[in-house]
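Field: sequence (string)
Field: structure_tokens (string)

Example rows 1 and 2, in order.
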Amino acid sequence: MDIARLCAGAGEVQFLAIIAVCVLCAVSYGVVHDQITARICVEYFTIGHAPVFGTDDPTLLGLGWGVLATWWVGVMLGIPLAVVARAGAWPKRSAVSLVRPLLILMIASAACATIAGIAGWRLAGGGVVVLPEPLAGRVPPEKHVAFLADAFAHSASYLIGFVGGGIVMLVVWLQRRKASVVG
């Protein structure tokens, strides 16, 4: 299937709009998520990540990493979702029609990140999981639990984002198929 042909004509705007909506959702989620996790453990960003931004301000780190760490997730979701929503003869989905399922995905990611962060906090607090070297030697000992809580929350966000993105694509494809049979 030739993506250039999918983008040709009037459908090009909707194809690109779907990608843009996915990037906007991912980046918005990332900024909010990182505003919270940067306040839980700023060391997760200053020690656990490359020194890209040259600051230890949680607001600036949350903004910077919120964009840098998620724009590509939005593109990786947006391109295949645009293909699933627009390709073929079945009724086509618009970018606006995908906002609700994408918001549901963001809410599910936030809920799972919260649960995972709490689980990480409790597991680390109980000594069940520990921060491995070389991070353990670089992160102040009193921040290990918070660092691991952030790590659990971030891992959950990526996992749910990718798995949930696949589910959104499947649902859109099934809805289009059903609409073609009914219509």
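Row 2 begins here:
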Amino acid sequence: MINLKKIELELSTYCNAKCPLCARTQFIDDVKLEHILLKDIIRLFPTLESCENKQFKFCGVLGDPLMNPEILEITKYIVRNNGYCNISTNSGIQTEQFWSELGKLSAETKNVYVHFAVDGFEETNHIYRVNTDFNIISRNMQAYFEGGKGNMLGGWTYIIFDHNEHEVELAKKRATELNLDFVIRTGMRNSLSACSTAKVSDKTEHTKAKKFKELQKKVETETVSKEIIDSVVCKYVHEDEIFISGHLKLFPCCFLWDSYFKNKENIRQKLAFDNPDWNNLKTNSINEVLQHKYYKTVLQESWNPSHNKHLKRCLLTCANNKLYHNQLFFK
């Protein structure tokens, strides 16, 4: 498989939550419900070589990977082939038995890490993670811990909002009891949002928010210097990473899938080329898609605003050494 180190998989476009800033919540009527199945994974990654020492991230734009009924089997398949699975979830899904088995698999192999995306404690988590039940989340965390006998790998990732700041120490204490890393996540999207249930104070906003606004002004007014173009750190070009959507389409990253789903900047027409299905993994292999001219030359060339397939999103999310990206602080 062509020089890949990381594969992000949107295993499902189903979700139990309705987080207000999520593309799924904002465009719910446009979401086509699908799962990536075990048979798809085996077809796309059929050999030990195609999985071995690669990082598989189960996250996505439109859904929670734990909604996929075959996620445990998919995780076991990748781990058996010496791949690493990083699973990001709102944690309010699946049974105690499932979580116990996943914890055991993590402890025994050290190839599974679960990111529990829980933004608050009992009093506040549901305010942003709408429709989730903290009692179920707490039960699942406990089952993961007990299944792995405390030796599993995982972390509690907590976005600090104005409404949940007072519960940080409670969450941190519980994370320590469950042998989970405790991580504060600061997102640029959250720092720039005007959403009342996602407000962040100055002291908890993204530390590069002001610099991003300066970059945004330049990109929006098309006063983009060569220095800005050369500062792009692309997940595909520079980090050997790809993103596979829940509909089995291959993109350079989750950001461009998000834009494609919303059809921002007329991206669907720009990336149609002569065949709109050129990046469809239902009919093509990963290698075949990555041999397309888009990945060979056009992607990198299109960072220049003068290019006919230019997308501002590339500069906004990945210029200035990925200025926009989330910040993680281990506590």
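free_text_note (row 2): The CA atoms of residues 90 and 137 lie 8 Å apart.
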